[in-house]
Design goal:
rSAM_sf; single chain; binds ligand V47; 4 iron, 4 sulfur cluster binding; TIM Barrel; 372 residues; 9 strands; four-stranded parallel beta sheet; 15 helices
């Protein structure tokens, strides 16, 4: 093993042993152990992480950099829960609170389809009164209004209380949602799985176990899904490794995750914000470790409204191969928490040019990563 690793020819006399081992293991296509993941988070320098993550992304995805044409619908920002990192939730009666009617949702979906989008991403607050039946109706409405759109909707956090209140089992409920039009499940609500941290930042939300169960069931029914990790708040590196480990295990079992999306905590307009934000360099280091650790999830999404357009080339050098989509001006989850670009919108030609200038090949994809 030692001999094979030396063949890679890295000369790293000053790097700590665990870092050298982690980098060389990843570049040899071996799976990182939790201890190696932790060592990379703690001690690996940006050039080493960039090298290994780029090598891994080239092996998995070549120079292809994916994007799609999509838009978001956020049905409401009323929410049963009061997570300390959230800037999106508003009380009913607040001038910035909203709850869309089915007609408004249908008209947004229709417009997205007419504009040439291929996907609608529907997510928002966990409305205090909306029922499972309402969500089924909402999906049917969108399906009817925009039959050609892939519907990626309702994070596990939104689904768990609806299914529980309807007294349904998860498999039956998900099958009903699928029949109503649901194509895949977005990655939101995972936050950080580690119980101690979850208790502090989102104690009312579904548990890590429940989040994982929703995705497991969805995968069993043939739906694909995404996974996120909210990082850069009070979690430690060990919590991030634990999060990645739990996702890697589920993916070994089902293979149902399309992509992984690290989301940097943004500090504006929420209670947790007093702690400030991590640097762009830490965002990049995190991308790289995620790329190396999640050897079984094909795509790493650099969600560009979070990243800021000017940082896209950097993210591509740290393992990212997917940028999400055009999005339009349709999401407020990030704009309310502080974003890099004042107006997080991008045209297809703008995204393509950024990717080309960075030396990669832009590729429009559908929601299942097939080239369009
Ligand atoms: O779960 C909320 C995050 C998520 C803040 O599946 C925050 O393709 C940072 O999951 N700072 C929702 N992050 C968005 C989401 C998502 C985004 C893009 C693509 C996909 C996908 C999914 O946004 C929440 C939470 O982790 N979030 N508030 C904040 N202040």
């Amino acid at each position: 093993m030692e001999r094979k690793r030396r063949l890679i020819g890295l000369h790293l006399p000053s790097a700590p042993l665990e870092v050298r081992e982690g980098i060389e293991a990843a570049m040899a296509g071996e799976r990182l152990t939790p201890a190696q993941g932790l060592a990379l988070y703690r001690y690996a320098s940006p050039p080493l992480l960039s090298l290994a993550a780029s090598y891994t992304r080239l092996r998995l995805n070549g120079l292809s950099t994916y994007y799609n044409r999509n838009g978001h619908i956020e049905p409401t920002n009323l929410c049963r829960y009061q997570c300390s990192f959230c800037s999106f939730r508003k009380e009913r009666g607040h001038p910035e609170a909203w709850e869309l009617t089915l007609e408004q949702i249908a008209s947004k979906a229709r417009k997205l389809q007419e504009e040439g989008n291929t996907e609608v991403h529907i997510t928002g607050g966990v409305h205090p009164e909306w029922t499972f039946h309402h969500v089924v109706e909402l999906l049917q409405t969108v399906r009817q209004a925009a039959p050609r759109l892939h519907i990626k909707a309702f994070s596990a956090v939104e689904l768990v209380p609806l299914v529980r209140d309807a007294n349904l089992s998860l498999d039956v409920a998900l099958a009903q949602l699928q029949a109503a039009g649901l194509d895949s499940i977005p990655g939101g609500g995972a936050e950080i799985f580690a119980e101690e941290v979850r208790q502090q930042i989102c104690p009312e939300k579904c548990t890590a176990q429940q989040w994982l169960e929703v995705h497991w069931q969805a995968h069993r029914l043939g739906m694909r899904s995404n996974a996120t990790m909210l990082f850069g708040h009070i979690e430690g590196y060990a919590d991030r490794v634990d999060h990645l480990e739990q996702l890697r295990r589920l993916q070994d079992e089902t293979g149902g995750f399309n992509c992984f999306i690290p989301l940097k905590f943004r500090a504006a307009g929420n209670r947790l914000g007093v702690r400030g934000e991590v640097s762009t360099l830490e965002v990049l280091r995190n991308y790289a470790v995620c790329r190396l650790y999640l050897d079984n999830i094909q795509h790493l999404k650099g969600y560009w409204p979070m990243l800021g357009k000017r940082n896209i080339p950097l993210a591509l050098a740290y393992g990212v191969d997917d940028l999400d989509g055009t999005i339009g001006d349709s999401t407020r989850i990030y704009s309310m928490a502080g974003v890099e670009d004042q107006q997080p919108t991008a045209t297809v030609s703008e995204l393509r040019q950024i990717v080309l200038d960075a030396g990669y090949t832009p590729l429009e994809r559908d929601s299942l990563y097939q080239a369009v």
